[in-house]
Amino acid sequence: LTGIPESDAMNLVGLFQSSGLDAVAVPKGLRLTDFRLFASDLDSTLASVETLDTVAKESGYGDSVAKITEAAMRGEIRDYAQSLEERIRAIKGCPQRNFIRFSESMPFNPGAEKLVAACRAAGLEFHIVTGGVDESAGPAARRLGADGFHCNKLEVKDGLLTGRVYGPDENGGKIVDSDGKKRIVEGLCGKLGIGLGQAITAGDGWNDVKMLAAAGLGAAYHAKPRVRAIVPHQVNVLGLDSILNWFEDGPE
Predict the structure, then answer these.
(1) Which of the following is catalytic: 43, 204, 208, 241?
(2) Quick one: which of 52, 100, 118, 172 has the fewest CB in 10 Å?
(3) pLDDT at 5
(4) What are the C-alpha distances in Å from 55 to residues 13, 50, 97, 135, 212?
(5) What pTM did the predictor assign?
(6) Is 241 a catalytic residue?
(7) Residue 245 to residues 32, 179, 203: CA-CA distances in angstroms?
């Protein structure tokens, strides 16, 4: 919705959303080429599943990991780093090859490939910024054609997970949590010589909120209720590529 008073636009957005339709209010004349960076979460945003949960279940570890993930994404566990460490300890001994095998057929959400391609064609760099692990983020970035990926790192010995996980150097070795995601986006902007206002971010969980709020445009994709309550730009029905419709130079 563009070209109408903000208060009227927000009322209409609320009406459309309550009717099960996607709608956002954006400034008139907004163009994708106004931006230089698109940074997106991976699990349940670009990917249609929580990769760690899926690999754990397929490897015989049951649903215990998924329960911790759900609580963290809903914002019920505020210490994301602790929740990730608990999940990795729970799958100690899992073969690394299970992650590699899964990554080859990791399912993406509708429109993921189109969104990445359109952003890069418009001159934006596209990066995956996730609280997940490199065994998932790396292959996803390559398959989608993203410019880079930023995530945590699993410790592996003799092909098996040791139960330990570490953060990347760009986050000071700390686990990539909500603050870490925001810090990484800030670092990417610094490398590109742009301000946060020229960055778009997308995510679904509580640990995405800070990078969604910091960017010039933050998109909550099929997000958890607590995220939808505070992030105004949302996609709740359509695919990821529907974000392109927010821009005047988006698809016809």
Answers:
(1) 43
(2) 172
(3) 60
(4) 38, 9, 10, 11, 27
(5) 0.91
(6) no
(7) 10, 29, 18
